[in-house]
C-alpha cells in the first residue's frame, strides 16, 4: 500500500497528467477504452517510475488494470517499454520525461519571448530580457484559491482500502460525472471548495472515506484556456489565449508590456467593463514585491494609458535612465528610484534642464530642496562629478625610499615629508633639490634647497603648500653616462656601459662575440685624439687595429678601452651575397637568380636561365632598376646587372601603338612602314598635333625623337612593338611633307643659292 501512495505522488511530479500529449504513439482507442485518452508515453513513464520504486510485477499489472489495460495489453506494452530502454540512452529518456512534464496545459503562448530594441526608459528593457520570466510553473500544484471552470481537468485518486484513479474534465455546463457517485457541479468553485464537495458526494459510495481507511486526493492536471486582451499603448496589442492560472504579471511579460509611450505606473485591469485595479509596475522593479499580482479571468482587459511624466536622470548616478514619475513625486523620489548618487558624485546640488515657453532653461537645485521640488515632464536632471583635483595632496619623488603622493597635514615641512617617505637613499645628491610649486596667483615657481644644510640648520626648513612636488635627484643623473659602441660583424651591435679597466675582449663578449661573417683579424678601435689645446686639428680620431682570437680567450690584446671608444669588426671579403635578379618572360627557366660575379651581364644571366625560347624577342627586352625602365639595346651594349634588377623578355610584338594627338589612337600591324604611314593609319594628325616633336619609344626603353635640318625632318625608324607619340599643343595644323611644302622649301633654297652667287662676285 505504501508503494502505491509513493507512486501516485511521483505521478504528480513527472507530469503524468498531460493527457493531451499528441506527439507520441498512442495505443488504439478500441483497446484502451477506459483509459480516458492516456498516451503510451505517459504509460511508459508510469511503468519506468514504478519499476524504479521497486514495485513488483503483480503490483504494476494491478495498477495498469485500474487504468483500463488488461493483461495481454500490458505484456505487449512491457515488451515495447523494455526495448525502448535498451535502445535509448538515459539522457534521452530524461529529456523525453522533461518534455512530457512541460506539456501540461495550453502553454504555447508562455513559450513566446518578447523581443524589442533596447529602450532608455526604466522598466521597458525588463520585457526584452529572456532570462526574466513570470511564466507560471505548471508542474506545481494549483493554488487552493484557483477557480474552476469548463475545460479544467481533475484527477481523483483513491488510496487505501479502495484504490482507483479517474481523469475527469469539467464540461461546458460546469460539472463532472464521477463513477458511482454521479454528477457534481464545480464551475465557479475554488479548488479547495471542490475537494469538499467531491468528498461529500463520494462518501455514500465509499464508506471507508468516512473512517479514514480510504484517502481521496484531487489534482488539477490540466488548466482551461481563457481569453484576455491587451489594449492602449500595448507593445503587442490583441487577444491572447492563455492558461487560466496566469496572473497579471505573467501576462505583462508574455505580451511585452507597454510601448515607450505607455505607462508602467498606471496599468489598468478591466473586468466586466469596470476598472478593478491600477498596477504600478515600479513597485516590483524597485522593491521586488507582487502586491498587485492579481489572477486574471476570462475576458479580462489589460489597458496601458499614455505616460504623464518622463524625467531623464544622468551623470554621477547609480542607475541613469529615463523614469516615469507620478504628479506628486519629487526629485527625492526620483533619486530613490535611481539608487541615489554615484560614488564620485557632487552631492550638494544638481542641474535641471527644462523646456520653457520658447527656450530651454537651467536650474540649480540644492540637496535640501530635493524633497519639495516637483520635476516637470521632459526635464533632464544631471549630477556632476567631484573635481579630480585634491585639496591636500603632496608628491615627493627621486632618491627617496618611498616616493609617491602624501597627505598635506597642518604645518608640514620639507624635512617632515622626507621622513614620511622613508628618508633619502645613499645614491641621493644632497647638495641640491627642488620643489615645483604653483603660487596663489597661479604662477609656476621653483624652490631649491640644500639637504646637507637642511639637516644642520632648522631655520632653512621649508613649509609646504598644497600640490607641491618635491624632487631629490640621484648622483648618477648628474654624471655623464659613459658608453662604448660596437658595430660590424658581432651578434649584438649597440652601446655598452663603460667601466674602468674594461678591455677589448670584454666588450666583444658583451656583444655576444663574433658572428659567422666576422673577420676577427681585422678589429678596429676608433678613439677621439687627445688635444693639447682647444683648437681645430686635422686628426680627430686615432685608429687602432687588432687581430682577436675567435673564442676571445686564446689571445689577449691587453688593450684598455676608454669612454666613447668605437669598436668596428670587419666582415670577410666575398662573404655576403652580391644580390639577386628577377628574370621572367620568354626564357626556358624564369625565376630569381643570385648574381654569381661582379661583372655578370644580362646576356650571361639569360644564358644561365637556359637561353631564349622560340617566341622571345631580345630586341624588345625590358630591364627595370628600382622600378624604373632602363633604356638599353643589348645588341649594342653589354648591360652589367645589379642587385634587385628585374629583367623581362617579351614575346615578339607585331603591332605598333600610335598615341597622342591623332584622331584614332590605336595599335597598327607592323608593315615596315615609316612614321607617316602609321600616323595615317591612325586617322592622321589633329589640329593641335606638334609633329616636329614626335618621337618613337622602343620596347627596350630607348626613345628616338624627330630630327630637323633647315626645313627637312627625319623621322625615327619604327620597329615592331614600338610606340609612336605625337605631342599636342596650341600650334597650327601640322602636316606631313606635301608637294606645297616641297615647293616652299625649293623656293627658299633657290633664294639662298642666288644670294651666295652674288656674294662670290
Describe the structure.
The chain has 17 helices and 37 strands. It is α+β, with helices and mostly antiparallel strands. The protein has eight domains: 2-102, no CATH class; 139-222, wza like fold (2-Layer Sandwich); 226-304, Outer membrane lipoprotein wza fold like, CATH 3.10.560; 310-383, Outer membrane lipoprotein wza domain like (Outer membrane lipoprotein wza fold like); 393-478, Outer membrane lipoprotein wza fold like; 483-571, Outer membrane lipoprotein wza domain like (Outer membrane lipoprotein wza fold like, Roll); 580-649, Outer membrane lipoprotein wza fold like (Roll), CATH 3.10.560.10; 655-742, Outer membrane lipoprotein wza domain like (Outer membrane lipoprotein wza fold like), CATH 3.10.560.10. The strands form nine sheets. It has a five-stranded mixed β-sheet, covered by helices on one side. α1 crosses α2 (40-52). The longest helix has 22 residues, at 739-760. It is extended and about 160 Å long. It starts with a helix and ends with a helix. The model is unreliable at 4-36, 101-114, 130-135 and 732-736 (pLDDT under 50).
Amino acid at each position: 500500500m505504501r508503494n502505491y501512495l509513493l507512486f501516485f505522488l511521483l505521478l504528480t511530479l513527472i507530469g503524468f497528467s498531460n493527457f493531451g500529449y499528441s506527439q507520441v504513439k498512442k495505443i488504439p482507442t478500441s483497446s484502451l477504452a477506459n483509459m480516458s485518452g492516456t498516451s503510451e508515453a505517459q504509460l511508459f513513464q508510469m511503468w519506468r517510475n514504478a519499476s524504479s520504486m521497486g514495485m513488483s510485477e503483480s503490483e504494476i499489472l494491478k495498477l495498469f488494470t485500474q487504468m483500463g489495460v488488461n493483461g495481454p495489453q500490458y505484456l505487449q506494452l512491457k515488451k515495447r517499454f523494455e526495448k525502448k530502454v535498451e535502445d535509448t540512452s538515459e539522457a534521452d529518456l530524461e529529456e523525453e520525461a522533461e518534455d512530457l512534464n512541460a506539456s501540461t496545459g495550453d502553454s504555447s503562448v508562455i513559450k513566446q519571448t518578447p523581443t524589442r530594441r533596447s529602450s532608455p526608459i526604466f522598466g521597458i528593457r525588463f520585457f526584452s530580457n529572456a532570462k526574466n520570466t513570470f511564466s507560471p510553473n505548471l508542474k506545481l500544484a494549483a493554488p487552493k484559491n484557483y477557480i474552476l471552470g469548463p475545460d479544467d481537468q481533475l484527477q481523483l485518486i483513491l488510496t487505501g482500502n479502495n484504490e482507483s484513479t479517474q481523469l475527469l474534465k469539467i464540461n461546458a455546463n460546469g460539472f463532472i460525472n464521477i463513477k458511482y457517485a454521479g454528477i457534481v457541479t464545480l464551475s465557479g468553485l475554488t479548488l479547495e471548495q471542490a475537494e469538499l464537495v467531491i468528498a461529500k458526494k463520494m462518501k455514500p459510495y465509499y464508506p471507508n472515506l468516512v473512517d479514514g481507511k480510504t484517502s481521496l486526493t484531487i489534482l488539477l492536471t490540466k488548466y482551461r484556456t481563457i481569453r484576455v486582451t491587451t489594449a492602449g499603448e500595448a507593445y503587442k496589442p490583441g487577444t491572447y489565449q492563455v492558461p487560466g492560472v496566469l496572473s497579471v504579471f505573467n501576462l505583462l511579460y508574455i505580451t511585452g508590456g507597454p510601448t515607450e509611450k505607455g505607462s508602467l505606473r498606471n496599468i489598468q485591469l478591466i473586468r466586466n467593463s469596470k476598472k478593478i485595479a491600477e498596477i504600478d509596475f515600479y513597485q516590483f522593479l524597485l522593491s521586488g514585491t507582487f502586491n498587485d499580482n492579481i489572477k486574471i479571468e476570462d475576458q479580462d482587459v489589460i489597458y496601458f494609458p499614455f505616460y504623464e511624466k518622463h524625467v531623464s536622470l544622468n551623470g554621477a548616478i547609480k542607475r541613469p535612465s529615463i523614469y516615469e514619475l507620478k504628479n506628486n513625486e519629487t526629485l527625492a523620489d526620483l533619486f530613490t528610484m535611481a539608487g541615489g548618487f554615484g560614488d564620485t558624485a557632487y552631492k550638494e546640488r544638481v542641474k535641471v534642464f527644462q523646456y520653457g515657453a520658447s527656450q530651454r532653461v537651467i536650474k540649480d537645485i540644492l540637496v535640501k530642496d530635493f524633497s519639495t521640488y516637483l520635476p516637470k515632464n521632459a526635464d533632464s536632471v544631471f549630477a556632476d562629478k567631484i573635481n579630480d583635483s585634491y585639496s591636500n595632496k603632496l608628491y615627493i619623488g627621486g632618491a627617496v625610499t618611498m616616493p609617491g603622493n602624501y597627505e598635506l597635514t597642518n604645518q608640514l615641512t620639507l624635512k617632515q615629508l622626507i621622513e614620511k617617505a622613508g628618508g633619502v637613499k645613499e645614491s641621493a645628491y644632497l647638495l641640491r633639490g627642488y620643489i615645483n610649486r604653483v603660487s596663489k596667483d597661479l604662477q609656476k615657481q621653483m624652490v631649491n634647497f640644500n639637504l646637507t644644510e637642511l639637516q644642520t640648520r632648522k631655520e632653512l626648513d621649508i613649509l609646504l603648500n598644497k600640490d607641491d612636488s618635491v624632487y631629490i635627484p640621484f648622483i648618477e643623473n648628474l654624471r655623464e653616462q659613459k658608453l662604448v659602441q660596437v658595430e660590424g660583424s658581432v651578434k649584438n651591435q649597440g652601446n655598452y656601459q663603460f667601466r674602468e679597466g674594461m678591455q677589448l675582449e670584454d666588450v666583444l663578449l658583451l656583444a655576444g662575440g663574433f658572428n659567422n661573417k666576422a673577420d676577427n683579424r681585422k678589429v678596429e678601435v676608433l678613439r677621439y685624439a687627445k688635444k693639447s689645446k682647444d683648437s681645430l686639428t686635422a686628426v680627430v680620431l686615432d685608429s687602432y687595429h687588432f687581430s682577436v682570437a675567435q673564442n676571445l680567450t686564446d689571445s689577449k690584446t691587453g688593450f684598455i678601452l676608454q669612454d666613447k671608444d668605437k669598436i668596428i669588426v670587419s666582415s670577410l671579403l666575398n662573404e655576403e651575397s652580391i644580390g639577386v635578379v628577377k628574370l621572367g618572360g620568354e626564357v626556358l627557366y624564369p625565376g630569381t637568380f643570385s648574381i654569381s660575379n661582379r661583372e655578370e651581364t644580362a646576356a650571361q644571366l639569360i644564358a644561365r636561365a637556359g637561353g631564349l625560347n622560340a617566341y622571345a624577342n631580345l630586341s624588345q627586352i625590358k630591364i627595370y632598376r628600382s622600378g624604373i625602365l632602363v633604356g638599353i639595346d643589348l645588341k649594342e651594349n653589354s648591360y652589367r646587372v645589379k642587385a634587385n634588377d628585374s629583367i623581362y623578355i617579351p614575346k615578339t610584338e607585331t603591332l605598333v601603338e600610335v598615341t597622342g594627338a591623332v584622331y584614332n589612337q590605336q595599335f597598327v600591324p607592323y608593315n615596315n612602314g615609316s612614321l607617316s604611314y602609321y600616323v595615317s593609319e591612325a586617322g592622321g594628325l589633329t589640329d593641335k598635333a606638334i609633329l616636329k616633336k614626335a618621337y618613337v619609344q622602343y620596347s627596350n626603353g630607348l626613345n628616338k625623337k624627330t630630327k630637323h635640318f633647315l626645313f627637312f625632318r627625319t623621322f625615327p625608324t619604327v620597329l615592331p612593338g614600338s610606340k609612336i607619340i605625337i605631342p599636342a599643343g596650341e600650334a597650327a595644323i601640322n602636316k606631313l611633307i606635301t608637294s606645297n611644302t616641297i615647293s616652299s622649301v625649293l623656293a627658299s633654297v633657290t633664294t639662298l643659292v642666288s644670294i651666295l652667287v652674288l656674294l662670290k662676285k
